[in-house]
Specification:
The protein has 8 helices and 15 strands. The chain is α+β, with helices and mostly antiparallel strands. It has an 8-stranded mixed beta sheet with strand order 4-3-5-6-7-8-9-10, sandwiched between helices.
């Protein structure tokens, strides 16, 4: 059987979308090359001086890992030269990143988490790169503004992630389904391995850090108890699977079915609305899951409908199989809360 690369798949898709241009293909091609460079370093992490922390703290108040910093710099340096972007937003940078004047500027905006799950790097747990792509809302020669970047998730042109694990995969959607590509190291290409991914409507797995139980609100506790009890759609407890890396937990549940939960908690007064970032984590995962037939909410609202107010805004996230996420909506509706 003939193997299809990501670029070939894109070109075939563009034939079905007359308004598509080669600029998007160029954007994704540069992202793919960045992922290959990051994958090379991740696979050799134990042999190179790239494990451990840099000693710095990022804008999120988190300790920066060496591989985190490396991945961030690789993506920024490659993408600023691509000629298709007008701005970037990285989880690691406080402000949005403008394209230097010496490089050509396009009309796409790239938002990314360079290395999700980086706290698990030293333990050799699967980690990944999450990305989200928007188109600029105005066509002008003026510098891009923050208002143009703060678009709700429903405006995404594409979203995806690379997962660096037992095999390296890229999963993405451009609004025409979800497709997975596996990196074949012998030819150095991502080849189509999981076409038209659909998440099961009903899952059997719930993923959440139950160590934070005492910090949750009552609806969240009732939701988790629902999945642990035998009084649910399965008639028996769901299996608990929690890695602690969003990309890894999300990817497993996308393939097998289930729900990932990172609810709001009050253990850290600086993060009263949860830990995950709306624009670089929740929105791209929400677009992917909806294209795969699932759902993503913050407890009461569709994630893709939330209007962002700041670059690094945080939200609770409940994402996965449709019937499982509907359970979350039901419990919050019964509690009468506007939002978690």
């Amino acid at each position: 059987m003939r193997q299809v690369t990501v670029v070939e798949h894109l070109l075939l898709s563009q034939k079905e979308r007359p308004m598509a241009s080669g600029r998007f293909t160029r954007l994704l091609t540069e992202l793919i090359l960045s992922a290959k460079i990051i994958d090379r370093e991740v696979s050799k992490a134990g042999l190179l001086d790239v494990l451990g922390a840099t000693g710095e703290v990022n804008v999120q108040g988190e300790i920066v890992q060496k591989l985190d910093d490396f991945a961030n710099q690789v993506i920024i340096r490659r993408m600023e030269r691509a000629g298709v972007l007008c701005a970037m937003v990285s989880e690691e940078n406080a402000d949005f990143i403008e394209i230097p004047r010496q490089f050509p500027v396009g009309d796409y905006i790239l938002i990314f988490d360079p290395l999700d799950g980086s706290a698990n790097i030293d333990a050799n747990v699967s980690i990944g790169t999450i990305f989200s792509i928007y188109r600029r809302t105005s066509y002008t020669q003026q510098a891009v503004t923050l208002d143009e970047i703060l678009q709700k998730g429903a405006m995404q042109v594409a979203a995806g992630y690379m997962i660096y694990g037992s095999s390296t995969m890229m999963v993405y959607t451009a609004g025409n389904g979800v497709h997975g590509f596996t990196l074949d190291p012998s030819v150095g290409e991502f080849l189509l391995s999981h076409p038209n991914i659909q998440i099961p409507e009903q899952g059997r797995i719930y993923s959440v850090n139950e160590g934070y139980w005492s910090y949750w609100d009552e609806p969240t506790r009732r939701i988790v108890n629902h999945f642990k009890s035998d009084e649910n759609a399965l008639g028996r407890p769901y299996s608990l699977r929690y890695i602690g890396s969003l990309v890894s937990d999300f990817h497993r549940n996308l393939i097998y079915g289930g729900i990932f939960m990172y609810p709001a908690d009050h253990r850290d007064p600086r993060k009263p609305k949860g830990k995950l970032r709306l624009m670089c984590e929740a929105n791209p995962m929400a677009m992917i899951i909806e294209q795969a037939g699932g759902m993503a909410v913050d407890g009461t609202r569709r994630i893709l409908d939330i209007e962002p107010e700041e670059l690094h805004q945080r939200v609770p996230l409940f994402v996965g199989s449709k019937k499982d996420v509907e359970v979350v909506l039901q419990y919050y509706r019964e509690a009468g809360d506007d939002r978690p």
